[in-house]
Amino acid sequence: MKETKSSTPWRPLTAKYCCSPEKQAICGGRCRPSKSEFSKNVAPVPSFRGLSFSELSRSSSTRINEDLAQTFGGDLFDFHLSELRAITQNFSGHFLLGEGGFGTVHKGYIDESLRQGLKAQPVAVKLLDIEGLQGHREWLAEVIFLGQLRYKHLVKLIGYCCEDEERLLVYEFMPRGSLENHLFKRISISLPWGIRLKIAIGAAKGLGFLHGAEKPVIYRDFKTSNILLDSDFTAKLSDFGLAKMGPEGSKSHVTTRVMGTYGYAAPEYVSTGHLTTKSDVYSFGVVLLELMTGRRAVDKFRPKAEQNLVDWTRPYLSSSRRLRCIMDPRLAGQYSIKGAKEMALLALYCTSLNPKDRPKMPSVIETLERLRELKDMAVSHGQWPATPKSAQVIGVHPNKGAAGHHGRKPSPVTPTNKT
């Protein structure tokens, strides 16, 4: 599996950990071709409009641009590298938004004179690192999926650049960054319960939209670093490099190489490579737990019994009395007792070991929507602060603050040989 690019700071894995199932290496999963291999064949990606991805993957940058322009027309802008250099001041470090396995992301500003029909706006420009751990195939997948899927809870792709070996993507700028930063960055102000609920609902609607498409899409990389927030905390899913088309016809699943992030990936997917929309539901349940507890899905800096969030929280989720012991202490009791209980049970169902027991996203959205109006704050009902013993259970890790280890991402899952 992979270490993706949406968290801050993002730190790409080194090449020495690249996919070696025989050695059970932990690696990014998105192994990047070297410059000498970059033009060789890349595995095909499913299409919506009948694009031949196998041909696109084998094509020159000129051919790729022609095919994409013919497919998307005015929906996406084909930028020149010189234009993107100009709006980011040659990808200046002063405009760096983040860095990951994909490469770097820089803020830029487009004015209306750059292209006809393009409004003036800030943008995020993602620059592919040829020597990184993610590749042309993921770049192409993002262009295809986000070029055709438009929804208020999916980040908007404005355009792309494909010149020689250079691959870039241009997105709408999301001013509040990722959910990961707000939950785990020590300098951030704690998100209120109502905002956390709003984010959960928005992200759920994004997944629901993908799963409910005419040809269902499995996102495959749902996690806090891939949930971006606009100025009013509307959640939008980003990073579609690992997205897959769902099973067709009578097939119950898609068999694919295991990729994603350890701690978020559904156990049956990790063990078998069988991918379904219920794999996304599991990941959503993990994010719900992160929203409730303020803890990361995996945190190696905590006591061994508390390192895996799903395992640690499971005994607490069905007990109203014990639930408060795992709630994020930074909420300071400003959360709905009934809402937390319902969210905990929902997270428990979503992370069920049996995929058939997990709810579908429409049911998840309906459950979360019902929690909006609940006002029974724990602090007003004598359920905060937690007891001294409980406070010890959720105690702040030394030198890490309530949000856990700053800037560290979970280790990626060991990939398999499946394709």
UniProtKB/TrEMBL annotation:
The keyword Transferase applies. GO terms for cellular component: plasma membrane. Keywords: ATP-binding, Cell membrane, Kinase, Membrane, Nucleotide-binding, Serine/threonine-protein kinase, Transferase. This is non-specific serine/threonine protein kinase. It is found in: Cell membrane. May be involved in plant defense signaling. ATP binds at K126. It is an enzyme of class 2 (transferase). Residues 397-419 are annotated as: Disordered. Residues 91-371 form the Protein kinase domain. PANTHER family: OS01G0588500 PROTEIN-RELATED.
